[in-house]
Amino acid sequence: MITHLSGTIEEVRLDKATIDVSGVGYSFFATPATLSTLTAGQEAKILTHLVVREDAWLLFGFAGRDERDIFSTLITVSGIGPKLALAALAVFSPDELRAAVSRGDLAALTQIPGVGKKSAQRILVEIGDKLGEPSGGEADSSSGIGSAGREEVCHALEQLGWRTPLAQKAVKEAAEANPQAQVPELLRAALQLLGKHHA
User: Fold this and answer.
1) Residue 150 has pLDDT above 90, yes or no
2) First to last CA, the chain
């Protein structure tokens, strides 16, 4: 089992990235929140989960242990494969997913691409309390990427020189304007708002 990889990020795409570890390139699928933390040419440590099939070995990467643990639990549900589990973590942060499962919110779970009512019911029945309780109360679900993704966008704006209160305000406004925006779209929208306010 490959549990983590440490090396230099070679490439970052919309749904996956490649990391060079001692001259060997490993390609892994990841959520927008995780991919937004990676930059080509920089060193990184990625927590991983390897899925072995008859026709392929698929590697999935995560910036944090919590995301990986949720992923590992989701793929134990019958009918929920790794791509669907990754989609769930692209829509919800780990705490938002815990909150939806703990309150039996079928409507929220069916927001995950590829998850219908029956699949949502299976998630509730088969996972039960395996995900645990939300760590800090229910997170704001105004954006499709979840609170963790919004925090990553705020961090990216801070790295570009914007002060934290301004960055947080721009991300909040951008998320409210487009609740389903993913990390790249939300970052672009927030930058546009900041540019208008401070032109």
Assistant:
1) no
2) 51
The crossing angle, in degrees rounded to 10, of helices 117-127 and 94-102 is: 90
In the numeric block, the tokens 């995780």 are attached to 34
Q: Rounded distance, CA 88 to CA 113, Å?
A: 8
Residue type, 35: L
From the list 142, 134, 50, 35, the residue with the least C-alpha distance to 94 is 134
Percent of the chain with pLDDT over 90: 38
CA distances from 197 to 89, 169, 192 (A): 32, 11, 9
**Total Cβ atoms within 10 A of residue 63:** 21
Amino acid at 6: S
Cβ-Cβ contacts under 8 Å for 143 (sequence gap 6 or more): 149, 150, 175, 179, 180, 181, 186
Which residues, listed in sequence order, are joined to residue 106 by a DSSP beta bridge? none
